[in-house]
Design goal:
By secondary structure, this protein is of the alpha/beta class. The protein has 6 domains: 190 residues, 3-Layer(aba) Sandwich (Rossmann fold), CATH 3.40.50.180; 62 residues; 189 residues, 3-Layer(aba) Sandwich (Rossmann fold), CATH 3.40.50.150; 110 residues, PAS domain (Beta-Lactamase), CATH 3.30.450.20; 96 residues, Beta-Lactamase, CATH 3.30.450.20; 111 residues, Beta-Lactamase (2-Layer Sandwich), CATH 3.30.450.20. It has 28 helices and 35 strands. Helix 4 packs parallel to helix 5. The N terminus and C terminus are likely disordered.
Length: 972
Amino acid sequence: MEQDEHGKKEAKRPLAIVGIGASAGGLEAFEQFFKNMPPDAGIAFVLITHMDPAQKGLLPEILRRFTRMPVQETEDGMKVEANTVYVKPAQADLTLFHGTIGHLEPVRTHGLRMPIDSFFRHLADDQDGKAVGIVLSGTGSDGTLGIRAIKERMGMVMVEDPSSAQFSGMPRSAMATGLVDYSAPPEELPELLIQYVKFSATTPTGEKLTTARVEADLRRIFSLIRMRNGQDFSRYKRNTIRRRIERRMALHQIPSIGEYVTFLYENPPEVDTLARELLIGVTRFFRDQKAWVALKEGILKDLIPLRPEGGTIRAWSVGCSTGEEAYSLAIVLRECLDTLKRPDMVQVFATDVDARAIGIARRGTYPANITADVSPERLERFFVKEDNTYLVHKEIRESVVFATQNVLADPPFTHLDIISCRNLLIYLSAELQKQLIPLFQYALNPGGFLFLGTAESVGGFNTLFKTVDARWKIFRRQEGTTPQVPRFEIPAAVVAQPATAEKKAREFAREDEIVTALAREWLLVQYAPPAVIVNEDGDILYFHGRTGKYFEPRPGRAALSIHTMARPGIRDTLISLLQAATREREGFVQEAAPARVSDGEQQILITIRPVGQLAGRGGMLYVVVFQNNEKPYRKYPEGGVEGRKRSDRAPEGGTVQEITRVRFQIQHTVEDMQASQEELKSMNEELQSTNEELQSMNEELTSSREELQSLNEELLTVNMEHQKKIAELSESNDDMRNFLQITNIAMLFLDNDLRVRRFTAPIRLIVNLQAGDVERPITDLAVNLKEGGFSDDLRGVLRTLQVREREVQTKEGRWFKMQIRPYRTAENRIEGVIVTFIDISQSREIESSIRRARACAEEVMAVVNEPLLVLDDNHRVVSANRSFYTMFGVTREEAEGNLIYALQDRQWDIPRLHELLEEILPKQGEIEDFLVEHDFPGVGHRVMRFNARALPPGAGPDRILLAVGGSIDRPI
C-alpha cells in the first residue's frame, strides 16, 4: 500500500513547470495552445496575465472549454502537480518555492505591473535548468527580463511568432534579447515543448558528457568555436560547459555528443549560438541592490576623497554583456561625485568577448520593464523615455566606452580606480582565476576597488587585496603591494611530468653530492692549514681555518684586502709573493720568512698557488696558505725593546742602510699601490652602482612597455568607439541631408551671434548664400524680403526663446511662411536659432481665387430675386441673399452662424424642413420642388417650394444650397 501511495506521489510530480505569460490577445493564443496540448504530457502550467485586481477573472472557466486538464485558480501554499493548469488570480502576484506556489500583494513598479517578469524569476530560481518560460501575445515588454533569468539558469524559452500574434509587443521584445530557443505559432508550440521535456527527462543531466571517451569530442567543439569566433572555452569550468552543451542537444533532440559534433560541422550558425550560450551573457541593472549600496558607501568614503580633485575616476567593467552593469557603475560614480560636489570626470571601460552584446550595449536602449530594477529618481535623471523603451542619457552614454576584448588574452586597462567583474570568475577554472586576480591587482591604482559577484572571491591572494565587504565581495588593493605584470603561463596539465625512475635517480645523485660536500668540509677543517683565497688585486674572497694569527682588521673603513689586513710582520712578504704569483700564473711560489705574529716572532712558511678563474669576470684566483716552519723561534721577553734592538743588529756599514732604503721604497710602493687599489675599488663601486641603476632603468622600461601595451589597447578601444560613433554620425548626417533635400524647405541655422552655421539650397531665394558664407554674420548679407525687421525677429527669439511665425514676401512677389525657433541641444542648451521658409505662394493664389469666386457668388446671389441660403453640414446659416432677408424680415446678424431652425424665435423649426434636410437630402443629394407650408407671424401663411442640393466637397467644407420659391395657392 505504501508503494502505491509513493507511486501516486511520483506520478503527480511534473516533468517540468511551464510559466506562460500573455496580455492583450492572449485568450486566443491560450485557446490555440491548449487545444493542441495533450492532457497527459506530465507537465504543469502556470498562466500569468495582466488583469485588474479589482475585477474577478473568468479565465479558468474559459480555459476549461479548450483542455481536458484540470484548470484552477492558484491558492497560497498550493503544491504544483503534473497535468494541471494553474491561473494567477487578479488579486495576487505569484512566487514558487520547492514546487509550491505562494501569493504576494500585487506590486506596481513606478506605475507598471510586471507579474510575468516576477514569476519567471521565481520559476528560474526554483526549477533551475528545468524551468520553461513561454511568452504569448501582448503589448509592452513584460516577460523580457524574466526570460533572461530563465536562460541564466539554463532553462528553455519559447515565444509566439510575432507574425501570428494579435499584439506583437511582448513577443518582439522577447525576441530582441536573442535568448529565445523556439518561435512558432501557438498551435505548434505544444509539440516542440513535449519533445524537449521528454528528451530532457529520459536523458539524465550530468551523465552524457562526463566519461573520458567524449573528451576528444569536446576538444573538437572547442576547436570549431575557436576557428569560427576566435574564442577559447577549453579552460572554462567543465560543469558549466557540460550543462550548456546538454541543453543545446536537448533542443535539437540529439542523443550523443558525437552526433552533436557532426551537427555543428553541418550547421555553422549553431556554432555561433553555442558560443553565445557558453558566454552566459545575462545581466540587469543594479543586480544585488544592497551590493551597489555598499560599493557606493566605499566610493564616497574611501576612494573619491583620496583622489586629486578635477581628475578622472577610471573604472573597468569586465564581461559587461549588454551593458547594464557598466551603465550602473557609471551612474553610481556620477551620483557619488554629485554628492561630494566634485568636478571630476567619469570614464568607464566596458569590455566583453561577445561583439553582438557590445553592439546592444552601445545603443543604450532597454525595455520599459527595467523600472523593476531602476529607481524613479534614476529613471528621471539618467534615462530618456521613448515609446516603450528607455534610452540611457547622453551624459552617461558618453562616459562609457564599449569594446570587444578577451580579458584572458588581451592587455588590460591600467591606472584604474574600480574594476567590476561580477559573475565571470565562477565560470572559469581555478587556473584562470589565479591568472586574473594578479592582473586586476596590476591594473588598479593603490587603494582601488575590486567588485566581484556574490559567489566569487580573490582566493589565495589575500596579500594583494584587503576585504572591504565580505558579504558583497568588495575588495581593496593592499597598500604597499608592488604590482607584478601578470604572465599567462602554459597550463600545468599540458606539461609532461618526468618519469618516476628519473626522479628517483636525481634524488640519489643529490644525496651523494651532500655526503661528498660534508666529508670534504670535515677533512679541511681537521687537517688543512689556515688559508685565504684572494684575487689578483689582493681582495680576500674566502677564509679557511683560524687566520686571526695572521690577519687583523685595521681601524677606519672596512675593507677585506690582504694589503691592509695582514699583520705588519708578514705584509711585505705577502705582497712580494703575490706579485710574483701574478707574474708567473703557473705553479706556485713559497717562502719561509720570519714574521711577528699574534703570539710572538717565528718562521712562517707562506705558499701562494693559482686555483682558477672567477666565472664571468676573467680574473685569476689564488690560495694563500700559512704553515709554521719547524725552525726554533723565541718569544719576546719582557723588555722586548732592548732584546729587539739586539736581534735587529745587522752587519756593519752600507748593508744596513741599503736594507733600510729598500724597505722604505717598498713601504712607499705599497702605500701607492694601496691608494691605487682604493681608487679602483671606488671606481668599481661606482660601476656597480651604475649597473644597478641600469638594471632599475631596465625594469622601469619593461614596466613602461607593459603600460604602453595597456595604453595602446585603451587607445585602440577608444578609437574603435570613435569610429563607431563617426559611422553613426555619418549615417545620421546622410539621412538628414537626404531628408532636407526631399522636403525642399528653405532652412537657415544660425549660432548665438547670428553667424551662419548651415543652410539648405532653397534658402538662396531669400538670402543669397554661398558655401563660403558659413561663419559669416547674417547681418552682413542681403535679405531678399520686402519688409525689414528680419534681424530684430532673430534677436527677439534668442531673447525670449519664443517661436515666431509670420508671412513674408520677397521682392519678386513670392510669399513664404517664416518660422523662427530656438536651436536646442540634447542637454537643453540654446545654441542659436533655426529659420524655415515654406513657400505659400500657390496657396495664397488659391485663397485669392476662392475669395474672388466667393465675391462673385455673393454678387450672383444678391441679384437673384428668389431667397437663397447656404448652410453648413450642421444646418447653420453660412450666408443668405438680400431677397431672403427682405422677404422674411431677418437681419444678417440674426441669421449667419445660427441654426436655421432657431431663426426668428424658432419660427423655422418646421417638421417638413427637418425631413428635407436630415432625411431626404443626405440620401439623394439634390431635391427640387419640395413644398413646405407654414404660418410665419408677421409675414402670414406661406406655401414654399424648396430646391436644395449638397454642394460638391471639392469646393471646400460640406455646404447645402437652399432656394426658397414663391407662394402658391393650392394646399400641400
